């Protein structure tokens, strides 16, 4: 067997592919137990080379990682013990460091597999041996002990005080081992692994090891001149990311050392990059701490970053490079690294302290004779916009004026940078930038776009215009459309000619994107220019069929579909079918794969065409659905590898690797993920737009959608899938399919996904998915167990809401708290509030479906909403707590209103005059709901509410933009009290007269109907309090009706609209009265009246 084992191992290392692949297949077919013996035998064979023994141990670790359960439990206990002893003895006896490290990793992996969740390890010899080795003079053994500990930090068992002391003593001694730099470096690596492991799962435990940081910093300083090993820097970076607070007492010392390396021209580029990463990571993980304690070092660092950004080599082919997808710089080049670092710094630290420091460095660079420095300065301005927006906004006039000067710079790459700066600012400072600078920026960019002398600059001007168009108000775009569109059409023709004669396409691709953005921004105003563009674009789609032109064809598809969406069905109808046929022909001709560049363009194109064509799109479904379903069902390749096995090309455009526990990295092939999200957006569009026509596909789409709710590789995919589910159920309902059966499949999957979801962007969408599904299926789809599970989730989310709020409170008391931290906390609070709105909507839909039978399920969550409504809570908490009571009263009725009145109603009445308009609105709406649904027992609270409602209605600023919705809800509340609880109104005639004066309301569409329902009822009764003496109020009432019709706030075909029309016609019968009323109407009101009476 030994000879056979040696032969197979040699074949596994063969450079001949066929030999090696044959050996791999043979090895894979060996049963796990025999594979264990085979590998141990290969290691021990006499005469084996180091490489062969190394491979045997690499394969042994993989065996333990992937097949442990298949071989270890079935080994006899004595054989298990022999395996452990063999590994420990081999570590002690191995003389080759690389091989010894691999054996250590095998031992660590075996220990990890044997330990339970509390890190209890049934292998007492291992921690004992590690402690012996760690204190032994033998350098190799000390290194081995640390290497195993770094690989599996749980080796010493649960994190109790004795084990912590043992670990601390071992690491402390190892870091100070003056006889061995190798041991010190491995100790630093071990500390990093230990601090980020599950053993050290609290800040308090991590803080116990804070005194290791100065020893690690000293070690880093001692490595001067030993740039080949960056383990210590990598370890410090991980500590700065995972537990930056323990670095705080030693921050200045750490920054001094890293800055010294950065400022030393003799430091290798790789070490400089890691030193920079330490600083940037600290800024991202503890920005307030760095703003408070690290400002001096940041100021000193900035010139180095700008120097990196200016490290650009002259490239004669730069301007003629025709590949639009190729990055300007390599991502790991100094210039790209510098730009990325400045961007990250700005986002992390904000602009209050950073911007003045950067501007001081930029001033001389902008005036430099060296084009590279001018380029770096302009790119720096681009990079800072997102993070320094608040501070740069007041300086925009000065900044933009300065940047515009560089559009005429002598060097094309500086002009490129200036254009880049304008395009980025158009995005970062929208819409202020577009409103203030359209007159100076647009003509200059259009001028450059028309200049053929520098294609790269020309294309970039088109890209900057895209950013401008996307954010520019339509009224401004209308002023420039005739200045932009005809020259753009001419450039399109010229660039098509260049494609034919010279084969260049970069500018043409950009012109298509710019045209797309222009049409999208201008909507139907683009119709006069339709014929100048569409024939050329159709020609490109039809003829650009080679792989070389795949991206060009994709952008042409995007362009024509966006033009169609902009101009509308009527104008696009003549071309729509032809365009759709071209797309289908392109799909068949090119046999698109999931990583095809054109696929996402096709899918979005189909989606837009579906929205344009509506029902007419149904005939294309059999042709487009196979590709869409294939994309939606994409299952990306994944892998888990050891850190040292991550390929050099990791994190390129195709694969992304993320470090995870235990020195492993998780890799995912990212190609196709965006397209997968797009496919679900498209399926949602089809279900929504086509309804009956989409029926044949509902079951198949649902089958693919439900598992995707747990597609954790891409939050956009999960969000799109969550949006699909209720639309699919609605589509099934319209098609008379078995909706309840589908819901029985969907509900457990949604709830399971919700249980596992932690992303604050996705959670609200999953809750909303549940709410909308409940709305579709109604009471027939809700049993006690399902409702309880939903409400258990609601309870959990509410408890987490309070926990996150408490965390924010603690962060406000942190020693490094500042206004930038407060901005971040406010943003997190807004995310929490949005989740609260979705929770409240779910409760509303459940109450709407179940009515008063929902009450037992509410009992558990009411106390939490009772906490939210207290005056010391944030405004949004109070608002949604009030809305909760509004909704359960409206949907679960009088029984719910009375059961929980003591928790809510006193606060609700008080909040009618709350300083915050959104709380006043919710409280006023609640009063109206109580009037309609709350029963007679709550009439005294309505009586108490009336003077408060009148107070906010009669305030001088009640109709301001900030207050109008709250005011209209107050007016509507009075109307509902008069209609449904007149007994609560002490002087009803006075209240009706006042009510007539308060009209009209036009902003809150939901409240217009009840307000005019009361008007109609009182007019039909000839109520003198409403009409006034001798009908003197009639012109005002007619004016109010005309107003709501003129503003399109009320549809004349609704029940209330029909009653208003009937009353207006009755007034019209008295021509003298009618003409007197008509004379008082504004043009808008006259149009409204004409609409009503037509």
From TrEMBL:
PANTHER family: IMPORTIN BETA. Residues 340-601 form the TOG domain. The keyword Repeat applies. Residues 316-338, 806-827 are annotated as: Disordered. Keywords: Cytoplasm, Nucleus, Protein transport, Repeat, Transport. It comes from Tropilaelaps mercedesae. The lineage of its organism: Eukaryota, Metazoa, Ecdysozoa, Arthropoda, Chelicerata. It is found in: Cytoplasm; Nucleus. InterPro entries: ARM-like, ARM-type_fold, IMB1_TNPO1-like_TPR, Importin_beta, Importin_rep_4, Importin_rep_6, TOG, TPR_IPO4/5. It comes from the Eukaryota. GO terms for biological process: microtubule cytoskeleton organization; protein import into nucleus. Residues 316-331, 815-827 have a biased composition (Acidic residues). Gene3D superfamilies: Leucine-rich Repeat Variant. This is Importin-5-like. Transmembrane segments: none annotated. SMART domains: TOG. One of its GO terms (cellular component) is cytoplasm.
